[in-house]
Amino acid sequence: MKFVRYEVNGRSPQVGLVQENHVYDLSAIAPSMQTVIALSADGLAIVQQHAAKVTGIPLAGVKLHAPLLPRRNVMCLGLNYAEHAHESLVAQGQAVALPELPIVFTKATTAVSGPTDPIPFDPQVSDKIDWEVELAVIIGQQGKNIPVEQAMEHVFGYTVLNDISARDLQRQGKQYFKGKSLDGSCPIGPWLVTKDEVPNPHDLNIRCLVNDVEKQSSNTRHMIFDIPATIAYLSRGMTLLPGDIFATGTPDGVGFARTPPEFLQPGDVVTSIVEGIGELRNVVTAV
Ligand code: MG
Question: Containing domain of residue 14, as a range?
Answer without folding.
Answer: 2-65
